[in-house]
Amino acid sequence: MKLRSLLFVPGDRPDRFAKAAASGADALILDLEDSVALEKKPEAREAIAAWLKTGRTLPCFVRVNPLDGGEIEADLRAILPAPPDGIVLPKAEGAASVRALIALAGGSTPPILPIASETAAAVFQLSTYGDVAAHLAGLTWGAEDLPAAIGATSSRNPDGSYTAPYEMVRALTLFGAHAAAVPAIETVYPNIADSTGLAAYVARGRRDGFTGMMAIHPAQVAAINAGFSPSEAEIAHARAIVEAFAANPGAGALKLDGKMIDQPHLNQARKVLTQAES
């Protein structure tokens, strides 16, 4: 499943589902949690279940409510018969939360995408996801719930960059995903009107090792897809590296365009070409 862009859609706004599906996003996240008021959750469940049963043309995840919130059982009863292509689990606290979700679902679920950094306890469980990697669609994080959970005033500096504690959490999520060998999904960029800032944020995410990103508006999708796709120049350079090593079997290091390249460069080149092929 290609997951460069995952677009959130409130579950109680079925009038937006088709527009979101036409946005170019690789997947939708139909939301039953934060964007849906408590009294509207039953109608949101009905709307999502109805949409999932249509002949949709792209993967649809559902963000259910937290394990301890008293709503997740009703969420699962409504959506699993459809079924969705994945489940986004908010306020996940490591492998134990993934196992608890699977148990609630009766022993089997679609692939799970935990939001793995929304409580203080969650931060200390980011190394455990490898134990349940077979059940995961990836790993992502959030920068809004955690500061609220610990009484912080913000996760961001005045210029919009993350403060040190949240930079650490972002990095731990990134490494937790790669340690589990699952996609690392960057969190949302909340300023919809700031296209320049979004492009820079996407570029930084891909540079650091994230493979995709969540979006909160259709207008963000094109920039995310472009940013998490290899450019023609990157593809050409990757091919040149692979061809150079193929022409020199047994070589540990080579010179290409005046620079030394070795096995880490070859491994990265192969990843770029795999990503381009997908």
Structure description:
This protein is an alpha/beta fold and 278 residues long. It is 40% helix and 14% strand. It has helices spanning 17-21, 41-52, 72-79, 95-104, 120-123, 145-150, 164-179, 195-208, 221-227, 232-246, 263-277; strands at 5-10, 27-31, 60-63, 86-89, 112-114, 139-140, 184-186, 212-215, 253-256, 259-262. An eight-stranded parallel β-sheet has the order 5-4-3-2-1-8-7-6. A two-stranded antiparallel ribbon has the order 9-10. Strand 4 (86-89), helix 4 (95-104) and strand 5 form a beta-alpha-beta unit. Helix 2 (41-52) packs parallel to helix 3 and helix 10 crosses helix 11. The protein is globular and about 65 Å long.
Poorly predicted runs? none
**Backbone structural class:** alpha/beta
Distance between the termini: 9 Å
Strand content: 5-15%
Count of helical regions:
11
Tell the overall outline.
globular
Query: Into which percent range does the helicity of residues fall?
Result: 40-55%
The biggest beta sheet is recorded as: 8 strands, parallel
Give keywords.
14% strand, alpha/beta, 40% helix, 11 helices, single chain, two-stranded antiparallel sheet, 10 strands, 278 residues, 8-stranded parallel sheet
SSE blueprint:
Blueprint: E1 5-10, H1 17-21, E2 27-31, H2 41-52, E3 60-63, H3 72-79, E4 86-89, H4 95-104, E5 112-114, H5 120-123, E6 139-140, H6 145-150, H7 164-179, E7 184-186, H8 195-208, E8 212-215, H9 221-227, H10 232-246, E9 253-256, E10 259-262, H11 263-277
Parallel strand pairs: 1-2, 1-8, 2-3, 3-4, 4-5, 6-7, 7-8
Antiparallel strand pairs: 9-10
Helix pairs in contact: 2-3, 10-11
